[in-house]
Specification:
- It is a single chain.
- The chain has one domain: Ribonuclease Z/Hydroxyacylglutathione hydrolase-like (Metallo-beta-lactamase, Chain A, 4-Layer Sandwich), CATH 3.60.15.
- It starts with a strand and ends with a strand.
- It is built from 6 helices and 14 strands.
- The chain is of the alpha/beta class.
- It is globular.
- Bound molecules: zinc ion (ZN) (2 copies).
Length: 244
């Protein structure tokens, strides 16, 4: 499978960039994990909107779903002019469904995500775990037919369930919202050191840090994660591609 980072900022996008959005391609399927602000315009560099199969929304914070409403209009128009043949499937963490209000249900098919109930999208299996966050939020493990596994944390504080979901994953794409000196100052997000600890305990093959703060030196996040995890560590960036 191929992972492309569309956006990697927490809260709001830096100039010409995007918040959370990750394109995953495998066996002819193209799915988007989260669709935050700035994602829709940048996504089109890598995937035509006619071809996008599904969107998975981990939670209803704007930096993870704001652009899904613009995407709804794109699907509406592309289907009306005959360029797109099928509605878009949008999977949303179950208890958050009521907070999303699409206007055109014939073009966007919304499906609830339930923890403990794996989904199949194309040939991949998706499993979920409950995060620690201000609103209900899930982490996602996507496993392809050839047994490769990508885990995306969504937003979360430190939790055992993410360690279990990430067990032996080929790539753990994990939020790293804070530097270690901020540990304990904010709930519901990880420091880079905590991200490293989760990667080490889960024995993942490589780590990609994302969902960045808008201050400090981001390279410090890698240094802090590396104090706890000795595998390869990457800093996400818009346009980053990873073959898994
Ligand atoms: Zn966020
Ligand atoms: Zn959030």
């Amino acid at each position: 499978m191929n992972l492309t980072v569309i956006g990697c900022w927490g809260a709001y996008p830096e100039k010409n960039e995007a918040t959370s959005g990750y394109l995953v391609e495998y066996s002819g399927s193209k799915i988007l994990l989260d669709c935050g602000s700035g994602v829709l315009t940048r996504l089109q560099n890598y995937c035509s909107l006619e071809e996008l199969d599904a969107v998975v929304i981990t939670h209803t914070h704007a930096d993870h779903f704001a652009d899904v409403y613009s995407l709804e209009f794109a699907i509406l128009i592309l289907m009306q002019i005959g360029k797109r043949k099928k509605p878009l499937d949008v999977y949303v963490y179950g208890s958050e469904l009521c907070r999303l209000s699409f206007s055109f249900p014939q073009y966007v098919h919304v499906h609830p995500i339930h923890i403990g109930e794996p989904l199949k999208i194309g040939t991949a299996k998706l499993e979920f775990s409950e995060n620690v966050h201000e609103v209900p939020c899930c982490a996602v493990r996507l496993t392809t037919e050839d047994g490769k596994a990508l885990v995306y944390s969504g937003d979360t504080g430190y939790c055992q369930s993410l360690i279990e979901l990430s067990h032996h994953a080929d790539v753990l794409l994990i939020e790293s919202s804070f530097y270690d000196w901020q540990k304990g100052m904010m709930n519901g997000h990880l420091t880079a050191g905590e991200a490293g600890t989760i990667a080490a305990l889960a024995n993942v093959k490589q780590l990609v840090l994302t969902h960045f703060p808008h201050y400090g030196e981001l390279s410090q996040l890698v240094e802090e994660a590396a104090q706890r995890y000795d595998g390869p560590i990457h800093l996400a960036y818009g346009d980053m591609k990873l073959s898994i």
